[in-house]
Design a protein that fits this description.
The protein is an all-beta fold. It has one helix at about 110; strands at about 15-20, 20-25, 30-35, 40, 70, 75-80, 90-95, 100-105, 120-125, 130-140, 145-150. The radius of gyration is 16 Å and the shape is globular.
């Protein structure tokens, strides 16, 4: 899996596994790029089109916004389809053999497209029966926006 980390546009890859199930997650966008069963990738992956490969996280929007703009209090911010976090590098917060947790926090660059302080946490875990479990938590300022986070 080392070669995946050298692809254009990709971050650092991390592999988690349990029994016959594994997943490779890219820190760029914190997306699964290769769910595997008995060593075989079971998802479309094109090394020449990495931005359209894998399972992206979409925030704050999934569909395109009107005129490609997020409007907050009369100010317009450029926002592409699927939001902006899929194009950001996440940091590993915790890793074990069968799970990994990533964090993305607001910074000067993110504030130019999404004018809110935030923290986005996503955890992938392979649990019994080979299910790749996803949970995430998103807070904007002191407000918890998304909370589908349960320890496994």
């Amino acid at each position: 899996m080392e070669e995946l980390s050298k692809l254009k546009g990709a971050g650092t890859t991390c592999r988690i596994s349990k029994d016959e199930i594994a997943a490779v997650i890219d820190s760029h966008g914190a997306k699964i790029i290769s769910p595997e069963h008995t060593g075989s990738n079971i998802l479309y992956y094109d090394p020449y089109d990495i931005s359209h490969s894998g399972i992206p996280l979409c925030f704050p929007n999934f569909d395109p916004l009107e005129k490609g703009k997020l409007t907050v209090n009369g100010t317009h911010f450029n926002m592409g389809q699927h939001g902006f976090i899929r194009d950001r590098d996440f940091e590993i917060r915790h890793k074990s053999a069968s799970s990994v947790t990533y964090t993305l926090k607001s910074d000067l660059a993110s504030l130019t497209v999404f004018p809110f302080e935030f923290e986005f946490i996503v955890k992938y875990a392979i649990i019994k029966n080979g299910i790749v479990y996803l949970c995430c938590r998103m807070s904007v300022g002191n407000i918890l926006v998304i909370n589908v986070f349960q320890e496994v």
